[in-house]
Amino acid sequence: MPILTVRHDSFPIAGTFTISRGSKTTVEVVVAEISGDGHVGRGECVPYARYGESIDSVIEELRGMEKAVTDGLTREALLDAMPAGAARNALDCALWDFEAKATGMPVWQRAGLSTAPEPVVTAYTLSLDTPENMAAKATENATRPLFKLKLTGEGDLERVAAVREAAPNTRLIVDANEGWSVSMVEPFSEKLAALGVEMIEQPLPAADDAMLADVAHPIPLCADESAHAREGFPSLVGKYEMINIKIDKTGGLTEALALKAMAEDAGMDIMVGCMLATSLGMAPAFLVAQGAKVVDLDGPLLLARDRDPGFVFDGSTMMPPSAALWG
């Protein structure tokens, strides 16, 4: 009979990672492991305070599912048993991995994907900083094909201009993490378009989404903090051109794949993103990233130490994960 165990892991970031809501120097994750009959399946999640989650609360949620796992919990039943969020993500991904290990059939086949996953190019995130420091980081990584710049409002145009000058050949997308006011969206997007920015992620607080329907923006807007699972998706249509699908928000790969299909049916472009996490947290999202317009799964590149084995990178190109990592 399968047994669920839960633990808290910590990994150092290479330096400091800063967004509009604050800074951190470590990645704190929760891992769910399902073991039985000589097989172990793993899933990793990142509790996020923005959504009322903590390490302790997620561990408590997962430990509340121990009996259900022993009794044969399925991924389909899990969608009803837990709400979307980090805890369900860890358990859903552990179930996928356990099934793959127990059956010898990789997750991509079990998920019904038509072909094996192929390498993808990920964005490389430049943490929020002064224009000078962001430009210096861009210079260090000028051979990377795509940067995502963390922004906050005041001083953002100067930040992007500095990075553009430092890396004239690199594609740019930006992420305000809810840090702008509605009065900034139109003028900022016009000026950022002139700098070659291709996408603006979550400019306003999620509660202010309705304002976006009437604001001109020459650059596509991408929902992040506003986008979780299928249930809330219809409210995004007409306000955003893209959706950032993160498995920690959808509550796992199962819901993420369903949300991706729903968004594509609605004509919305797909971005696949991540919380700052290890390769174990990126591996399930790698499947969702197949065919996505923008991939942002650079979490392992920003760590001082990753899991072993982890993803293999060739610059910003991620190779498909090994079965020893996940799936």
What's this model, at a glance?
The protein has 11 helices and 14 strands.
What can you tell me about this protein's structure?
This protein has 327 residues and is of the alpha/beta class. The chain folds into 2 domains: 3-110, 2-Layer Sandwich (Enolase-like, domain 1), CATH 3.30.390; 120-318, TIM Barrel (Alpha-Beta Barrel), CATH 3.20.20.120. 32% of the residues lie in helices and 23% in strands. An 8-stranded parallel β-sheet has the order 5-6-7-8-9-10-11-12. Strand 7 (171-175), helix 8 (182-194) and strand 8 (197-201) form a beta-alpha-beta unit. Helix 6 (131-140) runs parallel beside helix 7 (156-166). The mean pLDDT is 97.
* CATH architecture annotation name of the largest domain: Alpha-Beta Barrel
- What strand order characterises the main sheet? 5-6-7-8-9-10-11-12
Main pleated sheet: 8 strands, parallel
Gyration radius, rounded: 19 Å
Binding site for Mg(2+): 175, 201, 224
GO molecular function: metal ion binding; racemase and epimerase activity, acting on amino acids and derivatives
EC number: 5.1.1.-
Active site: 150 (proton acceptor), 246 (proton acceptor)
Q: How would you describe this structure in keywords?
A:
alpha/beta; eight-stranded parallel beta sheet; Dipeptide epimerase; 327 residues; Enolase-like, domain 1; EC 5.1.1.-; TIM Barrel; isomerase; 11 helices
What is the strand and helix layout of this fold?
Layout: E1 3-19, E2 22-36, E3 39-45, H1 55-63, H2 66-70, H3 75-81, H4 86-103, H5 107-110, E4 120-121, E5 124-126, H6 131-140, E6 146-150, H7 156-166, E7 171-175, H8 182-194, E8 197-201, E9 221-223, E10 242-245, H9 247-250, H10 253-265, E11 269-272, H11 279-288, E12 294-295, E13 313-314, E14 317-318
Parallel strand pairs: 5-6, 6-7, 7-8, 8-9, 9-10, 10-11, 11-12
Antiparallel strand pairs: 1-2, 2-3, 4-14, 13-14
